[in-house]
Amino acid sequence: MANHPRAIDPRVRESRQRAYLSVPTLARQMPSISEIAVELRFMYETGQPFMSPYRQIFVPDMQAYFEFQCPDRDCSGAGFDMTPAISAAVRAGKEEISGTLKCRGSKSRTPCSITLDYKVETRLRESGN
Ligand SMILES: [Zn+2]
Q1: What is the model's pLDDT at position 7?
Q2: CA–centroid distance, residue 126 to ligand 1 (Å)
Q3: For ligand 1, a single-atom ion, which residues have Cβ within 5 Å?
Q4: What is the number of structural domains in the chain?
């Protein structure tokens, strides 16, 4: 039987790092945006909070990388990809969107049950004349 160590495989970490660095900055990817605020609320399937909600702010000189890792340390190969939701909001010019994503990972061979309730607020750059 394979023995899976708990620590994140350094190759996984490295590939995440590479993925992060390979995406363009927010300024290049979404030039109309001055700020994106993402509010993350991780919950068990039952709706009980897994941890305190937190906000992450993206500004133009940051990488447009919207993958969030599952907060459950026993969960492997997982995460929440906010890229489609954020891209859609920006394309549609929506100032606020919200939704729910389910973790794609698994722990001890059963699907992870962590869900993410998110809210995304986008702020447009002031267009000077
Ligand atoms: Zn998970």
Answers
A1: 63
A2: 38
A3: 70, 72, 75, 78, 103, 105, 112, 114
A4: 1
Residues in a beta bridge with 110: 107
Range of the domain at 102: 24-124
Does residue 4 fall inside a structural domain? Answer: no
Q: Is residue 49 a part of any domain in this protein?
A: yes
Distance 117 CA to ligand 1 centre (A): 14
pLDDT in tens, 80-109: 999 999 999 999 999 999 999 999 899 888
Report CA(120)–ligand 1 centroid distance (Å): 21
Asked whether residue 34 is assigned to any structural domain, the reply reads: yes
What pTM does this model have? 0.83
Q: What is the pLDDT of residues 108-128, one digit of tens each?
A: 889 999 999 999 999 998 865
